[in-house]
From TrEMBL:
This is Dmx like 1. GO terms for cellular component: RAVE complex. One of its GO terms (biological process) is vacuolar acidification. Coiled coil: none annotated.
Length: 140
């Protein structure tokens, strides 16, 4: 289990700056390539009048702080994923934490009860390259 903590960034002359990162939605997944680069997957509701869990769009934003000497996070790129909820099979339901439950792919619990398959809807991971750079992979 990881706990996200804000730490102070030095901006010069001993002044402190916030290390907070803001995204326009609900963060669902965070992955770090290293201490200076991270990706945040977040969910945005597509309609304010909708209470359906499937009415949302996903974005993945990549932030870096190398270009500022570690003094502040800079948005490098945002990947706009299509409306994932509308592309899902009818047997798949998603809760508010973006956990996908597949009613067709079931397993037996130790007590003999049937349970739907449970998976995270979005998975972020970084791959290291030989030259020291990193490639972000987004699994849906």
């Amino acid at each position: 289990t990881y706990v996200w903590e804000e730490w102070p960034l030095l901006i010069g002359d001993g002044l402190l700056s916030s290390s907070a990162i803001n995204v326009p939605g609900r963060p669902t997944e965070v992955s770090c390539a290293h201490t200076n680069r991270l990706a945040v997957a977040y969910k945005q509701v597509t309609s304010k009048n909708s209470h359906l869990s499937q009415d949302f769009v996903m974005h993945v934003s990549i932030f870096e702080c190398e270009s500022t000497g570690g003094s502040s996070w800079v948005l490098e790129q945002t990947l706009h994923l299509d409306e994932i909820g509308t592309m899902l099979d009818s047997a798949v339901s998603i809760d508010s934490n973006l956990v996908a439950y597949n009613r067709q792919d079931i397993s037996l619990s130790p007590g003999g009860n049937t349970m739907p398959s449970v998976k995270r809807l979005i998975h972020l991971d970084w791959m290291s390259r030989e030259d020291g750079s990193h490639i972000l992979t987004v699994g849906i």
